[in-house]
Amino acid sequence: MARSLGELAAQFGCELVGDPAVTVSGVATLGNAGDGQLSFFSNRAYRKQLRETCAAAVLLTAEDSKDCPVPALVVDDPYLVYALIAAELYPPPPLQVGVHVSANVSPTASISPGAEISAHVIVGDDTVIGNGAYIAPGVVVGPRCSIGEHSHILANATLVQDVIVGRRCIIHSGAVIGADGFGNAKSRGRWIKVPQIGRVLIGDDVEVGANTCIDRGSLDDTVIGDGVRLDNLIQIGHNVNIGAHTALAAQCGVAGSATIGQRCMIAGQAGLVGHISICDDVVVGGATKIWKDITEPGFYTGGFPGEKDSEWKKKVARFRRLGDLVKRVATLEKRAGKNL
Amino acid sequence: MARSLGELAAQFGCELVGDPAVTVSGVATLGNAGDGQLSFFSNRAYRKQLRETCAAAVLLTAEDSKDCPVPALVVDDPYLVYALIAAELYPPPPLQVGVHVSANVSPTASISPGAEISAHVIVGDDTVIGNGAYIAPGVVVGPRCSIGEHSHILANATLVQDVIVGRRCIIHSGAVIGADGFGNAKSRGRWIKVPQIGRVLIGDDVEVGANTCIDRGSLDDTVIGDGVRLDNLIQIGHNVNIGAHTALAAQCGVAGSATIGQRCMIAGQAGLVGHISICDDVVVGGATKIWKDITEPGFYTGGFPGEKDSEWKKKVARFRRLGDLVKRVATLEKRAGKNL
Amino acid sequence: MARSLGELAAQFGCELVGDPAVTVSGVATLGNAGDGQLSFFSNRAYRKQLRETCAAAVLLTAEDSKDCPVPALVVDDPYLVYALIAAELYPPPPLQVGVHVSANVSPTASISPGAEISAHVIVGDDTVIGNGAYIAPGVVVGPRCSIGEHSHILANATLVQDVIVGRRCIIHSGAVIGADGFGNAKSRGRWIKVPQIGRVLIGDDVEVGANTCIDRGSLDDTVIGDGVRLDNLIQIGHNVNIGAHTALAAQCGVAGSATIGQRCMIAGQAGLVGHISICDDVVVGGATKIWKDITEPGFYTGGFPGEKDSEWKKKVARFRRLGDLVKRVATLEKRAGKNL
Question: Does residue B208 sit in the same domain as residue B265?
Answer without folding.
Answer: yes
